[in-house]
């Protein structure tokens, strides 16, 4: 799933830390969950085209998606949806990866005091496959498909593409901007992804302003 692929991209395989700040990671992961819900047909825009709502309450097999869908107690704008879905999303996604034997989560301490987590990638094939696919698209070696297009759009939304893929930051961001507006998804999903991208950007800016204040 997109959230799991995105989490693997955020993990620095050398030290088990995240490649960017936790707020950006959580907002991007929430955006990935939201894209999965839209792609599943469970969530869509309301008739006014401004808010996302549950249109099909059929239970989902994936526990993360099901739990996330349950948080849609009313129609909400993309930014609000991202903010609602980001609660514990990093821990939940990491737990699913750990359950599949892809990642091992270990406790660590920052400055010897503050509790944190280290993410050890135990399935290098899975992680390497995601990184290779996204890297090839980000560097222009091939075009985006639904999976890589969504991942790059979300990384671009939290200004982290250059932290995940080695290459010229300006060139990659220009390419990512074009990918975000591209036709790698159907009309309904693309429209939702554009709104979700804007929601992730807004939620990340709001979180940064709050922390700065």
UniProtKB/TrEMBL annotation:
Keyword vocabulary terms for this entry = Golgi apparatus, Lipid-binding, Membrane
Q: Where in the cell is it found?
A: Golgi apparatus membrane
Q: How does it sit in the membrane?
A: Peripheral membrane protein
Instruction: State the protein's name.
Output: GPP34 family phosphoprotein
**The organism of origin for this protein:** Lentzea kristufekii
Taxon lineage? Bacteria, Bacillati, Actinomycetota, Actinomycetes, Pseudonocardiales
């Amino acid at each position: 799933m997109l959230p799991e692929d995105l989490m693997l991209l955020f993990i620095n395989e050398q030290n088990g830390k995240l490649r960017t700040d936790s707020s950006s990671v959580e907002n991007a992961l929430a955006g990935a969950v939201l894209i999965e819900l839209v792609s599943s047909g469970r969530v869509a825009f309301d008739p006014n085209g401004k808010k996302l709502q549950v249109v099909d309450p059929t239970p989902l097999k994936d526990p993360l998606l099901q739990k996330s869908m349950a948080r849609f107690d009313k129609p909400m704008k993309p930014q609000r949806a991202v903010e609602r879905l980001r609660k514990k999303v990093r821990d939940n996604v990491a737990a699913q990866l750990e359950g599949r034997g892809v990642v091992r989560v270990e406790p660590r301490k920052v400055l010897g005091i503050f509790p944190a987590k280290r993410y050890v990638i135990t399935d290098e094939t899975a992680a390497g496959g995601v990184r290779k696919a996204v890297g090839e698209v980000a560097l222009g070696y091939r075009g985006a498909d639904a999976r890589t297009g969504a991942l790059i759009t979300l990384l671009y939304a939290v200004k982290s593409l250059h932290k995940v893929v080695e290459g010229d930051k300006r060139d990659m961001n220009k390419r990512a901007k074009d990918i975000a507006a591209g036709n790698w998804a159907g009309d309904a999903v693309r429209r939702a992804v554009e709104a979700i991208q804007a929601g992730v950007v807004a939620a990340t800016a709001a979180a940064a302003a709050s922390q700065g204040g």
